[in-house]
Amino acid sequence: MATTMEAAVLHGREDIRIERVLVPEAAPGELIVRVGAALTCGTDLKVFRRGYHARMIVPPALFGHELAGTVVEAGEGVTEFVPGDRVVALNSAPCGQCYFCARGQEHLCDDLLFNNGAYAEFIRIPERIVAKNTLHVPDHVPLEHAALTEPLACAMHGFEDSRPRPGDTVAVIGGGPLGLMILHVAALFGCEVIAIVKHDGQMEAARQLGAAHVVQTDNIRKAIRETRALTEKNRGRGHRHRGRRRARILAGSGRAGAQGRNGQLLRRMRPGHARHAGHQPHSLLRHHAARHLPPHPGPLPQGARSDCQTAASRREPSSPATPTSTNSTASSRS
How is the beta sheet containing 169-173 ordered, strand by strand? Predict the structure, then answer.
């Protein structure tokens, strides 16, 4: 294996450079993975525009955090993975020792370890992430689909946190990537899903992924009126009485419920009862993967345009790049 590789290195605000850097080596407990697919989420775009993330990445540093690939080196003590294994390595892992971890709230971990470097030929996976949040990829799952495991886990946890029951009516606000994942999970669970979207492509994608009803509008009052009309007795929020269906509202945007038009929809349609699907723990992945993930039917439909989730966490301290020479300075304003 070569000693250097090409990688995208974040140097500051809208300053990403493709550089030659040293290929990482596996310390005890670690993996080196050849990147087969690396994705871009809303957090990556925000970091690119701002030039940093206070707790996740400080430049200069290797960039990108959603990936899947093939193990090329396993450090001493690694027993669950060997070279040649196809894996998806998540971008963070909780400590398992702090107050919040002891309460099962790993997403609030005081020492959440973060890893960057997906936009490169190879990436080092730290020992904690290898042990807690690295999964084998089944042969029938393409790597570009496996790399979606992290946002899918957020969708699944946000959905489960709303405590749904089969037959419930679930309204999903937003037709971006995370919103589409939430509605697909809800449909597979047996819920009647109402998708609230803006664009034609999102409407078609929502129907393909299982939405029973689609409300297409960018007008808040119209969205409320048409969504309520699809619920029992036009209430917009479900009954909790035995034998009656309940209505749930989930937001598919990382910022929904906090600000903007999605937040207004949540407050008006179901005050005090909205569930937000962002900022969820990754430690549920190992538990969910075998239980919930069927063979992928094909590529995710096009037309999604929204932020993916963001995670507040401590950055991996050993992630800065070690460039040997600069090939280009790049990145134009997106």
Answer: 213-216, 192-197, 169-173, 247-251, 275-276
**Cβ-proximal residues to 236 (8 Å cutoff; 6+ apart), any chain:** 224, 227, 228, 247, 269, 270
Look up tokens 């999102």; give the residue.
Answer: 202
Task: Considering only residues 328 and 217, tell me which one the structure prediction assigns the higher pLDDT.
Answer: 217
pLDDT of the residue at 239: 41
> Any idea how long the chain is?
334
Q: 53 with 315: CB under 8 angstroms? A: yes
3-state secondary structure the chain: CCCEEEEEEEEECCEEEEEEEECCCCCCCCEEEEEEEEECCHHHHHHHHHCCECCCECCCEECCCEEEEEEEEECCCCCCCCCCCEEEECCEECCCCCHHHHCCCHHHCCCCEECCCCCECEEEECHHHHHHHEEECCCCCCHHHHCCHHHHHHHHHHHHHCCCCCCCEEEEECCCHHHHHHHHHHHHHCCEEEEEECCHHHHHHHHHCCCCEEEECCCHHHHHHHHHHCCHHHCCCCCCCCCCCCEEEEECCCCCCCCHHHHHHHHHHCCCCCEECCCCCCCCHHHHHHHHCCCCCCCCCCCCCCCCCCCCCCCCCCCCCCEEEEEEECCCCC
Segment 159-171 mean pLDDT? 89
Separation CA 266–CA 245 (nearest Å): 19
CA-CA distance, 288 to 158, in Å (whole number)? 13
pLDDT of residue 164: 87
Question: Is the Cα torsion angle 229, 231, 232, 238 positive or negative in sign?
Answer: negative
**Mean pLDDT score of the chain, rounded to an integer?**
77
Residues 6+ apart with CB under 8 A from 167: 190, 191, 192, 245
Q: What pTM did the predictor assign?
A: 0.69
